[in-house]
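Q: Got a minute? One more chain.
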Amino acid sequence: MTWHWKQLLPVDRFSVRTSQYITELDQLTLTLLYQPLIGAIANSFYGTLLAQLEKDQYWSREQTHRQLMLLLGTSLEVIFEERKKLEGIGLLKTFKRKDDEGTTYLYELQPPMTPKQFFENDVLSVYLFNRLGKTHYRQLRERFILDAVDKDEYTETTYAFDEVFASLHHSEMVSNLKSETSNALTIDSGQELITKASSSSLTFDHDFDFDTLEKSVSRSVNPSEIFTTEVRQAISRLAFVYRIEPLEMSSIVLQALLHDDQLNIEELRKKVQEWYKIEHGTEPPALAMRTQPVVHQQMNGKVPTTDEERTVQFYETTPPLSLLEIRSDGAKVALADVKIIESLMMDHNLNPGVINVLLDLMLWSHDMKLSKALIDKIAGHWSRKKVKTVPEAMKLALQEQNKNKPKQSTASSYKRQPGKTGAVRRDKLPKWLLAEKEKDKSVEVPKKSEPTNDEEAKEKSFAQLLEERRKMKK
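A: Always. Here it is, folded:
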């Protein structure tokens, strides 16, 4: 099993570096635009690393991760998980070096996108819209909007560079270059200037199948002319966000090219959104961790040999949304259920594998229904218990199942009342719950056989008493 302490230890050293300015606008962007997506802890982690840079310094002194734990007031496990969020969203690059003295990490802070880049980004803008809602999203976007100026009504009077400054004489230039001061014009190797370059874009590990896409559209257009580098990047991002397969994307691309020989990215984005509205409704997709983090996977790199191990592996490698699709036999997942998954991940900070166990527990125990109030209650309990792995969640799920057993076993009279449905669906329990219930039955049968017979005897005598009373009345 892979744990965070196999990759990061409190004694490991780290230093912070930045090659670009982090301005007040950048920090405002982090708080208002990035924090809803990565959470307050990750944003605080970024700010803490930034604070390690002293005034007018761009490289901090070395510290240990134990000091970072004290500054953030949290565990190394949380630091490791929050660091991955910053890396994934493009705010941090991590480099690792091993030597005789131990392991040293270099955390290179990346500036956030500008508001314009963020709101025009196909990935982040959609997820922020989903997270905040239409009204709040528009209010937030208005904070970064300037009124456009019609410059056609003005005449530009700006002076050009050569109208203000004069050039050095050729002889002066030559003499200066030959002098010792010419050394000031060059930079020593191994050094670089502080800059404010364009913000780094998001990187994706998944590979979109462009071969299938190109073969599908090759009958109508020339793929080599249409799919430029910029277009490929846009298609890859849109396919990730809206979960579009290559054949579906080929149809969308041809629609975007209907009246043009070149593929306009804005038109492609518009067609993708129209396709998504037809297929899935107007609610935009949500951002979520896809599967159980590797550091919390028990079956990572292992071959399951028992039913329990196969169940653990299934929960660890299946996204929660896919789990609900499987339980619905491939039917579309209701928007309310998608919101429940998002809340479990963002509000309760549960891992995807743990969410799968909770969803299955609720589905099997409540006739395939998901009650948000009950799910929030149990999720809050598991969050306080700091449940991170699937086996831990399965253990708590069994305890939750056993806690409800007395209410179900003593409800014999309740079951006989018409209109009451107190019985639990026993035919659709997961294998790990069924196995546990079978064990309970084998242990409890000898003890409960006598009370069961007594209850039957009491019910029989009561029936006989009613029959005798009826005869007496006759």
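A: Residues 407-429, 445-452, 454-460 have pLDDT under 50 and may be disordered.
Q: Perfect, thanks.
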